[in-house]
Design goal:
The chain has about 425 residues and is of the alpha/beta class. It has 15 helices and 13 strands. A 7-stranded mixed sheet has the order 1-9-8-5-4-2-3, sandwiched between helices. Strands 6-7 form a two-stranded antiparallel ribbon. A two-stranded parallel sheet has the order 10-11. α7 links the parallel β4 and β5. The chain is globular, with a radius of gyration of 21 Å. The two termini are about 25 Å apart. Pyridoxal-5'-phosphate (PLP) binds next to α4 and α5.
Length: about 425
């Protein structure tokens, strides 16, 4: 039975009547730009994340760009950003004329390694963009402490983590700005491109709103050089239809993750990322026997600072200490030369969707060769060779997720 990596129709078609009604309402209103669904959605998302202000924008990429512009980051400035991320995070830093400082990854959470970030700060460093990768928050206590020490602005790239929590606080609502994407593959997917920025700072919110429409106030009088970063009324209307379902989508993603972890963790050669942390010595000793590392919802999003939590009785579904993983991706690590590609072939032969997020870290991208950082960030370089994401979308059926788990189990049996 083929299993797609993602099935947007399985999510959207059950809402066809409501989505069509939303379309009709916007059509008949004629308010295609900044219609009433924009402030309504902004208020709903602000409430959900705990931030004071929300500003709907054209995409998750434009959300990051707008945040950097509102903070006045530009030529001569440096911005810390994880190398193991989607391109938009780093691309926006380059687009405002600033220099990205690529930070290595934590091998267990995939998020940025704040210790590595601390070692890269200079007098020109003005901001840090932690990315909450795959649905789990970066180590925000450490990020905020580093930012306070060096007076860095913090932009949380929460494109993959709307509704995730860090110690009881919403992803995106901790730093100066939080940015979200409603690209169709994100946990809350629009029917096209859409994004949003949050902040609890009144002045930054005002500046971002201004820059969203060419920096003008009043119209045709420009205080700043902004852009057209507006969210479409139609996308806002569609997103408002889907938002009440969001809690259910997340619960089903969490249940799918728990299912995989329960099925796969019993197989020989399979370890949880948490076990890899607690048995760091053992991992080195038995490295050759590890075939698959499963992702884990860490209670504090810092594998290293939470060793004691995992010493016994590890319970993958417990989101203790107020942290919540929303599982945008369920990303395996497949160590060993050639093994990840062998697994890809095995899954492809069975029609099981999978993807490598991400095959090339930012410090190895051609467009950033001028930085001369190619040989930095060894952990992320290794992750790019080992990671593989499998289907986790909410509408996955019991038979489909069993098929995925069985295929992985068969691979391990055939390739001990
Ligand atoms: C998807 C994504 C973006 C960009 O969002 P778009 O809406 O596609 O522009 C930025 N950062 C991360 C981490 C993402 O996953």
């Amino acid at each position: 039975m083929p299993v797609p990596l993602l099935d947007v129709n399985a999510q959207n078609l059950p809402l066809e009547a409501e989505l069509t009604a939303a379309f009709q309402q916007v059509l008949r209103s004629g308010q295609f730009i900044m219609g009433p669904d924009i402030p309504a959605l902004e208020q709903e998302i602000a409430q959900m994340t705990g931030a004071k202000h929300a500003i709907g924008v054209s995409s998750g990429t434009d959300a990051i760009l707008l945040a950097l512009m509102a903070l006045g980051i530009g030529p001569g400035d440096e911005v810390l950003c994880p190398t193991f991320t989607f391109f938009a995070t780093a691309g926006c830093i380059g687009r405002v004329g600033a220099t990205p400082l690529f930070v290595d990854a934590d091998p267990h959470t995939f998020n940025l390694d704040v210790t590595d970030a601390a070692g890269k700060v200079t007098s020109r460093t003005k901001a840090i963009i932690p990315v909450h990768l795959f649905g789990q928050c970066a180590d925000m206590d450490a990020v905020m402490a580093l930012a306070a020490e060096h007076k860095l602005a913090v932009i949380e790239d929460a494109a993959q983590s709307l509704g995730a929590m860090y110690k009881g606080r919403g992803a995106g609502a901790i730093g100066d700005f939080g940015t979200y994407s409603f690209f169709p593959s994100k946990n809350l997917g629009a029917l096209g491109d859409a994004g949003l920025v949050v902040t609890s700072d009144d002045a930054l919110a005002d500046k971002a709103r201004l820059l969203r429409t060419h920096g003008s106030r009043p119209k045709y009088f420009h205080q700043h050089i902004g852009g057209n970063f507006r969210l479409d009324s139609l996308q806002a209307a569609f997103l408002r239809v889907k938002l009440p379902q969001y809690h259910g989508y997340t619960a089903r993603r969490q249940a799918n993750a728990a299912f995989y972890t329960e099925k796969l963790s019993k197989l020989p050669g399979v370890v949880l990322a948490a076990e890899a942390v607690t048995n760091q010595g053992a991992e080195t000793r038995n490295q050759d026997s590890i075939r698959l590392v499963l992702p884990v919802a860490f209670p504090c999003s810092s594998a290293r600072s939470t060793l004691e939590v995992f010493t016994s009785n590890f319970e993958p579904r417990t989101s203790n200490l107020g942290s919540v993983h929303i599982w945008n991706q369920y990303t395996l690590r497949v160590p060993g030369p050639g093994r990840r590609d062998a697994l890809r072939k095995h899954l492809a032969a069975r029609g099981i969707g999978h993807e490598i997020y991400y095959p090339a870290p930012m410090h190895r991208q051609e467009c950033f060769a001028y930085l001369g950082a190619r040989d930095s960030c060894p952990v992320a370089t290794r992750l790019a060779d080992e990671v593989l994401s499998i289907p986790i979308f909410p509408e996955l059926t019991e038979a489909q997720r069993r098929e995925v788990a069985d295929a992985l189990s068969a691979f391990l049996a055939e390739n001990p």
